Amino acid sequence: MAIITLDPNAPEFTRRYPNLADPRLGAKTLACSDDFFAKMARMLNPEPAVFIPGKYDTNGKWMDGWESRRKRVNGHDWCVLKLGRAGILKGVDIDTSHFTGNYPPAAAIEGAFLASGEPDDQTVWQEVLPSVNLQGNSHHYHEISSTQVFTHLRLNIYPDGGVARLRVYAQPANDWTNADPHALHDLIAMENGGYIVATNNQHFGLASNLLMPGRGVNMGDGWETRRRREPGNDWCIIALAHAGIVQKIEVDTCHFKGNYPDSCSIQAASMAGGTDTSLITQSMFWPTLLPQQKLQMDHQHYFAEELQSLGPITHIRLNIFPDGGVSRLRLLSKIA
Q1: For residue range 188-238, what is the model confidence (pLDDT) as tens digits?
Q2: Burial of 11 (0-12, 13-18, 19+ CB in 10 A)
Q3: Of 29, 45, 75, 294, which is most buried with the most CB atoms under 10 A?
Q4: For the chain, first and last CA: distance in Å?
């Protein structure tokens, strides 16, 4: 995985919610009308698109994304994908990076919910994003206001061309009705529905990386803040997927060696009402779940006996002192 340069112009939904079109979460392309020049699966690659001068294959110039051939008949091209998790869409990024004379002039997105199986000719598709104009070599961010849950999307491009990446930012929708109340669940894992509420800084790495599955693959695959040059400490607030009683915490500084935090602590509370903005102020006064603990470089830290008994909680605030990088955070809890 390449170290990702954060787009300063990206809207807030790209920092708060997971990309459910990420193959690491199980997303995959299923079918398309045509991918003659570039295979559809490349469009979901979690790494930023690249351009390699002079690289060609048997069909022409190699491009990092999905690209159809030039359409010589009426109609448009499309690609169907399965999301890594069922989710409520918050926004999308249709990225045409490196596609200049071969990008689609317009695109639209439709969605469907399937309890099982894959889309077919009988599937009813609903409009998620109406047709929008596209530019070459650009990110196209579009916020989506919907309360519906989708499992599959269909990207339509008009009439043909190439899309480097499709990112689908959404709140995973899990049904906890039949969850084992005695089992431990990672209630901040993004695949379970945990999400970032706010953070004071994520200069080198997104805070949402903390919630990704598996261990970080390199230093770019974690939350990393800039070097702090003033008093204080860095922090991030995370919403649990479901209220829970914490039994064990893992703080993983994998790959962070000369830039790991000296120590960390976690505050927590059960919150109802207010807004995400008001939580930032309230979080300063939440009780302590995990008292301040020293950290080591490139190490998995486990805490259980150190945890304070707070009962059911819905949100946590991870404090790192004074700054640095953390790869993953796990909050193993019983369902409240």
Answers
A1: 998 898 999 999 999 999 999 999 999 999 999 999 999 999 999 999 999
A2: middle
A3: 29
A4: 37
